[in-house]
Specification:
The protein has 414 residues and is mainly beta. The chain has three helices and 33 strands. Strands 2-6-5-4-3 form a five-stranded antiparallel sheet, with no helix packed on it. Strands 13, 14, 15, 16 and 17 form a five-stranded antiparallel sheet that branches. It comes from Robiginitalea marina.
């Protein structure tokens, strides 16, 4: 028999076996999550500056001077040179395991790394320099992989290792075996939760610098830092703020916290000790918040881990800061970030695209534009143009009377 004939025969036999396995009614497809870990020693020295890298998942976006920083959840920060907004360029990747947020003041970048706060000097982008690391001053922010059917802890030891993320794979497994795994994982989950102290973080902005203070929210608290000495921030007492807090926004003497239960408002007249003012409750849903004039704009995203079934845009009257009241709501599909610039309102409505409205009359929002070919996650309205990140791309739009005009598009995945 010729070698080529033998090869074809073997290939055909393997194909038949493979097809039989795929058709096995005892096997089902399951999404399996396994922990990605580092030793405590490696984690303590894990911040590294590297060449540009492809982005797999878009996170927080931050603009500072001529640069844009895009977080890749739990991995680090992509640095983009934006001196020419029509032709932005990726120039660096700052690897920070467990990172989901950042903020910058006077060429010092503050970022979370699980429960630690790290500070980097970015005055020279060709020589980004780690400055200090405050250990254990934040709550861990690695979320539970809710989308997974099975969570395999394997040999992860919370006493000697740090959980920095999850690896998700699709596997065909016998249903009976899966039930056994689920039983084992329930016990492991309870044990790990007691030992590791890990928790869930937010989706949009959780860091905000106001003057000489950095405010970082976790699920229950405002973590306050005096950053008058930028190279040696001082952790002050945490302030209990509520439950399931996800985002933070600043205007004047107030912080506006978005949570899965509502919006909390805090006074920062005494910046080192924020004090509660009022709250607006909306049920249970994931939400960021921005404020403009007498109104707070809140997007509520229902479904999955967010709790509520319906999504929408809520506009809250805050003319009386002590008694916020719902003015009106509009239905949305699956909104994430949002922003305002003059009379324009921008809503990142997930797979339904970027929506632009004239908000001159909040009781009658007028649609100006709808970009259906993008999947936006977050926006930053600058004075001259809009930044938008989502689905592995950075888009920049020039403002015009009709809404927006595309200025540039940078594929971050490449």
């Amino acid at each position: 028999m010729k070698p080529s004939t033998l090869f074809l025969l073997l290939f055909a036999m393997l194909s038949v076996v493979s097809c039989e396995q795929d058709d096995d009614p005892q096997l089902q497809e399951f999404l399996v999550a396994r922990p990605l870990t580092m030793t405590l020693e490696a984690f303590a020295r894990s911040v590294e500056v590297a060449a540009p890298q492809p982005l797999q998942e878009s996170g927080k976006i931050y603009a500072y001077a001529d640069f844009i920083f895009v977080n890749e959840p739990y991995k680090g920060i992509h640095v983009i040179d934006n001196r020419d907004p029509a032709s932005p360029e990726k120039i660096r990747f700052i690897a920070i395991p467990g990172n989901v947020d950042l903020s910058v003041k006077d060429n010092y970048l503050f970022a979370d790394s699980l429960q630690d706060l790290v500070v980097l000097d970015i005055s020279d982008m060709d020589n980004i320099r780690p400055v200090t690391r405050l250990e254990g001053v934040l709550q861990d922010n690695i979320p539970w992989p809710f989308e997974a059917d099975i969570v395999e802890y394997g040999s992860w030891d919370p006493q000697t290792e740090v959980l920095v993320g999850w690896e998700l794979t699709t596997e065909r497994l016998p249903a009976e075996e899966v039930q056994n795994r689920l039983w084992r994982n329930d016990a492991l989950m309870a044990e790990a939760a007691a030992d590791s102290g890990t928790g869930q973080g937010g989706s949009m902005a959780r860091f905000k610098i106001v003057g000489d203070y950095l405010y970082a929210v976790d699920s229950h608290n405002i973590n306050v830092f005096d950053i008058a000495n930028l190279e040696a921030p001082n952790a002050l007492d945490d302030v209990f703020a509520g439950f399931d807090i996800e985002t933070i926004f600043h205007r004047g003497d107030h912080l506006f916290l978005g949570s899965m239960r509502g919006m909390y408002i805090f006074d920062i007249t005494s910046p080192g000790a924020p004090s509660f003012v009022s709250e607006f409750q909306h049920g249970t849903a994931c939400d960021p918040v921005v404020v403009d004039g007498d109104y707070a704009f809140v997007t509520l995203r229902g479904g999955n881990e967010c709790g509520a079934m319906e999504s929408g845009l809520f506009i809250v009257d805050i003319s009386d800061i002590t008694n916020p009241e719902l003015a009106i709501s509009y239905p949305m599909d699956s909104p994430y970030g949002l922003g305002v610039q003059a009379n324009q309102l921008f809503v990142c409505d997930g797979a339904s695209g970027l929506k632009v409205y004239d908000k001159s009359d909040v009781f009658n929002l007028v649609p100006l534009a709808h970009f259906k070919d993008v999947v936006p996650y977050d926006v930053i309205p600058l004075s001259t143009h809009l930044l938008m990140v989502g689905d592995g791309a950075l888009m920049q739009y020039r403002y015009n009377e009709a809404g927006l005009e595309l200025l540039s598009s940078l594929l971050l995945k490449g």
